[in-house]
Amino acid sequence: MTTYFIRRILLMFPTFLGSTILVFIILQMAPGGPLEQAIQRIQMGAAAEGEAGGSASADISSGGGAVLPESALKELKRYYGFDKPIWTRYLIWLGLYPRETRYREIKFKPDQFEISKRVGKRDGKTWKVLIRRDEQDDLAVFEIDGSPSPIWSATIEDTDEEGISTGIVYQKKISGIFTGNLGESYTYQMPVTEVMKPRFKISLFFGLTGMFLSYIVCIPLGIRKALAHGSPFDFASSVIIFVAYSIPGWALGGVFLVLFGGGSFWDVFPLGGFRSPMAVWETLSLWGKIVDQLHHAILPIFAWSIGSFAGMTVLMKNGLLENMSQDYIRTAFAKGLSEKRVVWLHAIRNSIIPIASGIGGSIGVIIAGSYFIEKVFNIDGFGRLGYQAILDRDYPITLAFLVIVVLIRLVGNIISDITLATVDPRIRFK
After folding, report:
1. Residue 407: inside a domain, yes or no?
2. What total number of domains does the chain contain?
3. Do 197 and 147 share a domain, yes or no?
4. Are residues 289 and 396 in the same domain?
5. Which end of the chain lies in a sparser environment, N or C, as judged by fewer CB atoms within 10 Å?
6. Strand 99-108 relative to strand 165-173: parallel, antiparallel, unpaired?
7. d(Cα 368, Cα 126) in Å, to the nearest integer?
8. Nearest residue to 44 (alpha-carbon basis) of 30, 56, 31
């Protein structure tokens, strides 16, 4: 079994690379990305200023937008990473290729082979470096004392008609997802991990709670329905379950808000949110915080988990009915074993196998498939963040969302295998 799981873990790497490469290429090549949006905002802003100043004709191109200087376009491409080939960008994102950070623009005149450039501060003092150019336009960076700089590098990017060479001096840094750096959000202007962390906790709370409740309710209910097959209880519970299942979770959440959120009937639960506003939350005692959290969580969790109730309950019921008709069950009864012992020690263990095999997939769904529920209940969770990042073309958040979802699904598959091998003694992974 150890060998099997080692192979599964090793297989995670090509699976991860394949999925991320595909999504990365699609995002980078799709029109309307962050670079195009930034250019459009600049053009619209310049056009508005031109119209307000009465000189729009001088600043507006024939295409209806402001003419963007080449230097500004180059800076935007560098900021969004579009100054590199797509495969280089992917390797930078992974953390396998150094990215250029803290860059400063430099210019060399035709007869100039050495310049001094201020690059920042070090130890509270101005930090300057010497940049020397050879006849092949290769640049070398030195500290003021003449020693080669271990930190800074420089390169020439362009030379105009007058012979003036323009380039940058920059630091190289290995930083990507393999180093734990998920990038910086274009929308929030802060590290992606800081944006995702609180929202991931929210979705994890609702998802795991809903999943736990589904298992502890549906498995006993499925057993009860199988043992009482054809009874009024079986019929009535089936009607309720399938009616609830036929309504999408997000739609059922809306119904709950109308009925119990003060919409038109009973004002029992809040209209949404993860908890009360912070000004109120901080004034509550520990018990008050627990009650407040439960008060906000009941409706979303119910809407979250209702979709799995029918499938899991029916799966458990049908599995138990099928196993109760097997030869080994009849043999157990023939040996004189009690019904309770036969059902609970033999039939149920085999009946739970299909449910155990799907636990990994359920883990992935509860984390990423929560957008609609979060939207209905105005919960600022992980699924809602990922969906909004796609709409806003916030590539760092979108790719980080993909990474987390893929890893969760891959780990979930391994958990499913472990659970299946634990429940089913016939399974032996080699």
Report:
1. yes
2. 2
3. no
4. yes
5. C
6. antiparallel
7. 48
8. 56
| Same structural domain, 214 and 362 | yes
Instruction: For residue 94, give the nearest of 82, 83, 104, 86 by alpha carbon.
Output: 86
Please, how many CA atoms are within 13 Å of residue 173, restricted to the half-sphere of its CB?
11
Whole-angstrom CA distances from 18 to 173, 183, 390 are 25, 20, 20
Q: Domain range holding 310? A: 192-423
Strand, coil or helix: 85: coil
Shared domain for 360 and 405, answered yes or no, is: yes
- Let me know whether 149 and 286 are in one domain: no
What CATH number corresponds to the domain at position 242? 1.10.3720.10
Residue 283: how many other CB atoms lie within 10 Å: 10
Q: Is residue 52 part of a domain?
A: no
**Owner of token pair 């990922």:** 386
Helix (H, G, I), strand (E, B), or coil: what is residue 131?
A: strand
Residue whose pair of structure tokens reads 């873990």 in the numeric block: 9
Residues 320, 326: Cα–Cα separation, whole Å = 10
- Element spanning 156, H or E: strand 152-159
In a domain, 419, yes or no: yes
**Length of the chain in terms of residues written:** 430
b/e code 78-113 from CB counts within 10 Å (16+ = b): bebbbebeeeebbbbbbbebbbbeebbebebeeeee
Q: What is the DSSP string of 245-296?
A: HHS-HHHHHHHHHHHHBSSSS-B-S-SS-SSS-HHHHTTS-HHHHHHHHHHH
Same domain, 168 and 316: no
Q: What is the pLDDT of residue 62?
A: 40
Q: Quick one: average pLDDT of 333-358?
A: 81
Q: Which pLDDT score, from 0 to 100, does residue 202 have?
A: 87
- Sign of the C-alpha dihedral, residues 290, 295, 297, 298? positive
Residue 236 and residue 285 share a domain:
yes
Question: Residue 86: inside a domain, yes or no?
Answer: no
Of 232-241, 336-345, 356-365, give the range with the top mean pLDDT. Answer: 232-241
Q: Please tell me whether residues 237 and 110 are part of one structural domain.
A: no
- Structure confidence at residue 6 as a pLDDT band (50, 70, 90): confident
Residue 133: enclosing H or E segment and its boundaries?
strand 125-133
